[in-house]
Amino acid sequence: MRRYIILILTFISFIAIAFAQEEISIAKDFVYVMSQGNYEKAVEYFDSSVSNLISSSKLKEIWESVLKNVGNYEGIIGERSEESGKYKIVYLTTKFSNAYIDIKIVFLNKKIIGLFFLPAQIKSYKTPPYVNLETFEEKDVKIGKDFVLPGKLTIPKGEGLFPVVIFVHGSGPNDMDETIGPNKIFRDLAWGLSSLGIATLRYDKRTKVYPQEFSNYKDGFTVMEEVIEDVLYAIEFVKTQEKIDKSKIFILGHSLGGMLAPRIASLSKDVKGIIIMAGPTRPLEDLIWDQINYIANLDGKIDEKEKEQLELIKKEIEKLKDPDLAQKYPLSMNILGAPVKYFLDLKNYDPVKTLSELNIPALIMQGERDYQVTMKDFEGWSILANKENIILKLYPKLNHLFMEGSGKSTPDEYNKEGNIPDYVINDIMMWIRDQK
């Protein structure tokens, strides 16, 4: 069950257990000790800032939930590391009987200050057949000011000027391709659209490049720091590019990015239109509750341990629903992986109302098999269906990643290699070309 919470926070929500870094040998020792069930010893590897939050019993709960949902631990099959300022980050690719998981461990002064369980990046990307690499150029770029982010600009070959689409991530520390398992959602979109004459910009999310900085906000942070500021920088960047049509700048947001797209457009007069892919219209805590119940019931039963954990999460959600949330809890206090300030900010934002007040076109896309952002959210957008500038499209076979499948969607589906179908790319391209 805990693994499901971690996946939810990675794909849909926040920066779960948001800390950062360590040494490969220490990381391996930590995982070994944890895998042997010696949780009292394992928590000794934590920095005091973490051990105050994650006790040995909590670590035991996390690890046992991972085992329950991905099978028995079988060992480490790969390793890699990177540095970010004074922090060191280690990724241990580990094999379980039913899945591969990257255990991300962040260190400061050889003490663990961050622990993440992520889908392993072990499969090579398969270029979809609709991509023609000869029709566009891709170059490395930098986005931002105080938090400079690496990115890629794809520009079709030939004479400009070209419309441009800026991609906005879902929640979690996403890379520029929005990589989930072996799948790269934003690369599919970028290469597919550029093969059809549309430029694109994608970049690593701030929470991926600067995770440690988010612990420095004394009163917590909001989606402004997590997402929006960098999109505004991206808009200014594309305006400086010679072959870009500055009158045709579009925002494409996936998941949380889709929910925030109207807010971003309200802050920039340069946004020509927005594309919303699986954008929530309900409070995030409602999505989390629906998700964990959906996943817990996939096997047709909920055991006593799962009931206990569901009850704990329910109590956390009740805190967020409390009308006196701001008075009862510090702004920096974490609830469900994000600070109180984060949720208070979103309580004051209505994506549907914001979009209804914008005089720009919008394309709203939804997969019917999506269990993370569901038809309930699409129904929220549907009240705008009578507006001439709004187009809504449903895709019966698609999941949250906008990839095809059949039957009920599951978390394991995200570990299957796939690509966004060509008809999704074509629908976006045709909509953009219709914006005269």
How would you portray this structure in words?
This protein has 436 residues and is of the alpha/beta class. It has two domains: 2-119, Nuclear Transport Factor 2, Chain: A (Roll); 133-283 and 341-434, Alpha/Beta hydrolase fold, catalytic domain (Rossmann fold), CATH 3.40.50.1820. The protein has 16 helices and 16 strands. The protein has helices at 2-11, 24-35, 39-42, 48-51, 56-70, 185-194, 206-209, 223-238, 256-266, 284-296, 304-321, 325-328, 340-347, 351-356, 375-382, 422-434, and strands at residues 73-84, 87-96, 100-108, 111-119, 136-143, 149-156, 162-168, 179-180, 183-184, 199-203, 244-254, 271-277, 334-335, 338-339, 362-367, 390-395. Strands 5-6-10-7-11-12-15-16 form an eight-stranded mixed beta sheet, with helices on both faces. Helix 15 links the parallel strand 15 (362-367) and strand 16. Helix 10 (284-296) runs antiparallel to helix 11. It is globular. Residues 1-22 have low confidence and may be disordered.
Quick synopsis:
Helices cover 36% and strands 24% of the residues. The chain has 436 residues and is α/β, with parallel strands linked by helices. The chain has two domains: 2-119, Nuclear Transport Factor 2, Chain: A (Roll), CATH 3.10.450.590; 133-283 and 341-434, Rossmann fold (3-Layer(aba) Sandwich).
Strand-helix topology:
Blueprint lengths: L1 H10 L12 H12 L3 H4 L5 H4 L4 H15 L2 E12 L2 E10 L3 E9 L2 E9 L16 E8 L5 E8 L5 E7 L10 E2 L2 E2 H10 L4 E5 L2 H4 L13 H16 L5 E11 L1 H11 L4 E7 L6 H13 L7 H18 L3 H4 L5 E2 L2 E2 H8 L3 H6 L5 E6 L7 H8 L7 E6 L26 H13 L2
Parallel strand pairs: 7-10, 7-11, 11-12, 12-15, 15-16
Antiparallel strand pairs: 1-2, 2-3, 3-4, 5-6, 6-10, 8-9, 13-14
